[in-house]
């Protein structure tokens, strides 16, 4: 009888896991791009895990999505303390495959002490030894970060993340912005963030224009660029551009942003992941008539929505 090795058993288990997740054992992986100058390589499609943290989503469903993501090379996982049970559910889902992912979370605290505590709690929840990237979350909010001087100071959140980086608990530091794009520029110019995430789609281009402000300067500085709100909201939950043909055009629009590293999309099922992967794998630049139509439709909807994420200035 042929001897079965531990490696053979591992391959069999991986194959069974892929089948259980509904993914071919040899799925074509999404293309990779560098995350700025961090040295990290990320799939151009990432997963926003807020939907995975909601009520009614089982741990098995989370496990299946993460297993399928690993098979497709979708390795960027974006979470946050405010995403329900997301961080806690990622812990079991990542067991045995943590090294396959770029794990990202956020802090909403202004002070060094509170930001430190938030990261430590997130590490405990996810059971991860470290985070690849931690963002200061939504720096455009003046209620959350009333003073940029404090945020950038010795007792601010950025100093906390830098101290945690020296300890190996955080590998890279970034920021996110949903509104007031120009408020983020002093932080970008400080040289203390290595990645930036903002809301971009054919609608918000005509309202907030992160592409022409924050992202343009980030690209010039070699800072990693992450797109969120690609469909105008979370997939299947208020996503303005989730229907056809808007879905495909919105994803292609995001992937074509100069300097873009990864576009994240909220999803809670393997089916939603596979739909996004299909568009990404068939990617071609949005141009010509398609681009014109997407921009015209986005401009019309922008006029209807107004400053729906908050003030521009």
Describe the 3D structure.
The strands form 2 sheets. An 8-stranded parallel beta barrel has the order 3-4-5-6-7-8-9-10, surrounded by 5 helices. A two-stranded antiparallel sheet has the order 1-2. The protein is an alpha/beta fold and 313 residues long. Helix 4 packs across helix 6. The chain has helices at 6-20, 59-72, 86-94, 112-126, 148-152, 157-166, 185-189, 214-221, 246-255, 270-281, 288-305, and strands spanning 32-34, 41-43, 45-48, 76-78, 102-107, 133-136, 173-177, 195-199, 224-228, 260-266. Helix 8 links the parallel strand 8 (195-199) and strand 9 (224-228). The longest helix is centred in the last third of the chain and has 18 residues, at 288-305.
Helix-strand blueprint:
Layout: H1 6-20, E1 32-34, E2 41-43, E3 45-48, H2 59-72, E4 76-78, H3 86-94, E5 102-107, H4 112-126, E6 133-136, H5 148-152, H6 157-166, E7 173-177, H7 185-189, E8 195-199, H8 214-221, E9 224-228, H9 246-255, E10 260-266, H10 270-281, H11 288-305
Parallel strand pairs: 3-4, 3-10, 4-5, 5-6, 6-7, 7-8, 8-9, 9-10
Antiparallel strand pairs: 1-2
Helix pairs in contact: 2-3, 4-6
């Amino acid at each position: 009888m042929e001897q079965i090795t531990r490696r053979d058993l591992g391959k069999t288990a991986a194959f069974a896991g892929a089948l259980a997740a509904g993914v071919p054992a040899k799925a074509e992986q999404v293309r990779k791009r560098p995350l700025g100058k961090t040295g990290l390589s990320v799939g151009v499609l990432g997963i926003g895990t807020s939907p995975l943290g909601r009520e009614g989503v089982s741990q098995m469903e989370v496990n299946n999505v993460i297993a399928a993501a690993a098979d497709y090379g979708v390795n960027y996982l974006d979470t946050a303390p405010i995403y329900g049970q997301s961080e806690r559910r990622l812990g079991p889902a990542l067991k045995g495959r943590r090294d396959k992912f770029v794990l990202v979370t956020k802090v909403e605290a202004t002070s060094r002490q509170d930001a430190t505590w938030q990261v430590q709690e997130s590490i405990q929840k996810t059971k991860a030894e470290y985070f690849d990237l931690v963002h200061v979350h939504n720096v455009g909010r003046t209620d959350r970060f009333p003073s940029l001087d404090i945020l950038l100071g010795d007792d601010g959140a950025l100093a906390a993340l830098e101290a945690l980086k020296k300890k190996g608990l955080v590998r890279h530091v970034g920021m996110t912005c949903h509104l007031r794009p120009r408020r983020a520029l002093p932080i970008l110019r400080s040289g203390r963030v290595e990645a930036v995430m903002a809301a971009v789609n054919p609608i918000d281009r005509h309202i907030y224009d992160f592409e022409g402000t924050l992202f343009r300067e980030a690209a010039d500085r070699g800072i990693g660029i992450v797109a969120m709100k690609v469909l105008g909201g979370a997939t299947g939950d208020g996503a303005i551009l989730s229907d056809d043909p808007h879905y495909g055009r919105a994803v292609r629009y995001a992937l074509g942003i100069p300097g873009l590293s990864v576009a994240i999309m909220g999803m809670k099922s393997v089916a939603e992941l596979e739909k996004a992967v299909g568009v990404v794998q068939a990617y071609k630049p949005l141009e010509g008539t398609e681009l014109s139509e997407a921009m015209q439709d986005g401009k019309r909807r922008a006029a209807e929505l107004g400053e729906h994420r908050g003030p521009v200035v």
